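ARCHIVE CARD
CATEGORY: sequence design from structure
SOURCE FIELD: tokenized fold
FIELD CONTENT:
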């Protein structure tokens, strides 16, 4: 069953029961604010690209807002302080019912980075070490905690540090490992690799446990050879990134965003990005466990048939 037909089966009842009363729809903003992420990270990079493309379309504008990431973005969206938000699918699942998706935009790679060759060589060796889980309010930190718990690991010190600070701490030996969730290569980490030998640990040994606890939230993927100086591909845990909104976001604006995701997909991929990219007909609509915004679903049907 295809993504669209599957959704129509699952959500037909909900769609049929949705009634919008004339005069009750909030006035649509002319500029949409998008909760993104940290400087140097994939979220803010994508948000800036989306902002540029939207402005060029002349139909609407998007302001890319710097935030701490997924968890922070979901809170901002719930509070009505942003109209759009980027979030990892596993973080968004906790807000299911309160948010809807406009599309699945690309895949994040959960990266666990250590100094090479003297740092830990496996996930199991993180026991008793100093680990940065990710920025406070980030999806990376939430996912990293799940990974550590699934592995039964108790680090000597687990902190939540912004990427820019964690990179400096790793380089200077103040921490033994850092977790980061983003595209590959991430520029700040690539710059670190050019100065200091680093390695990416294989986190997939805990993937079966994660999938038992959180079905459909994670996939097995691979960081390509050459990234951060690696001689061979490194198995990794992949997490989908979703572009989210509240259910009451104006239908016309939602349709315009969908059109940009479809028509300008090539311009929304950061230069130099490797690995798996989404923004394809099949992947854009595959937003489970979050339902598509009703207007987005209709627009995908119109565009894809």
């Amino acid at each position: 069953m295809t993504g669209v037909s599957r959704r129509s089966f699952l959500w037909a009842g909900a769609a049929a029961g949705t009634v919008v009363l004339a005069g009750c729809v909030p006035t649509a903003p002319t500029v949409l604010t998008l909760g993104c992420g940290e400087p140097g990270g994939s979220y803010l990079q994508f948000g800036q690209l989306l902002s540029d493309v939207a402005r060029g379309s002349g139909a609407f504008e998007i302001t890319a807002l710097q935030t701490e990431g997924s968890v922070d973005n979901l809170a901002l969206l719930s509070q009505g302080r942003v109209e759009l938000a980027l979030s990892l699918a596993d973080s968004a699942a906790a807000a299911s019912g309160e948010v809807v998706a406009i599309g699945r935009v690309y895949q994040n790679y959960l990266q666990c980075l250590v100094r090479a060759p003297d740092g830990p060589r496996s996930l199991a060796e993180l026991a008793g070490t100093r680990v940065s889980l990710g920025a406070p309010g980030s999806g990376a930190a939430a996912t990293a905690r799940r990974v550590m718990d699934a592995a039964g690991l108790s680090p000597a010190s687990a902190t939540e540090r912004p990427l820019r600070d964690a990179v400096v701490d790793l380089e200077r030996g103040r921490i033994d490992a850092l977790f980061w969730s983003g595209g590959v290569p991430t520029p700040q980490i690539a710059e670190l690799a050019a100065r200091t030998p680093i390695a990416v640990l294989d986190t997939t040994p805990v993937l079966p446990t994660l999938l038992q606890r959180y079905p459909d939230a994670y996939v097995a993927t691979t960081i390509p050879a050459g990234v951060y100086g690696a001689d061979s591909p490194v198995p990794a845990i992949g997490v989908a990134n979703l572009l989210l909104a509240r259910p009451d976001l104006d239908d016309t604006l939602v349709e315009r965003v969908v059109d940009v995701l479809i028509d300008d997909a090539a311009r929304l991929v950061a230069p130099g990005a490797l690995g798996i990219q989404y923004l394809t007909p099949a992947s854009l609509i595959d937003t489970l466990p979050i339902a598509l915004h009703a207007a987005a679903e209709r627009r995908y049907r119109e565009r894809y048939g």
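CARD ANNOTATION: Residues 42-57 form the longest helix (16 residues). The two ends are 15 Å apart (CA to CA).
SHELF: design records, drawer C
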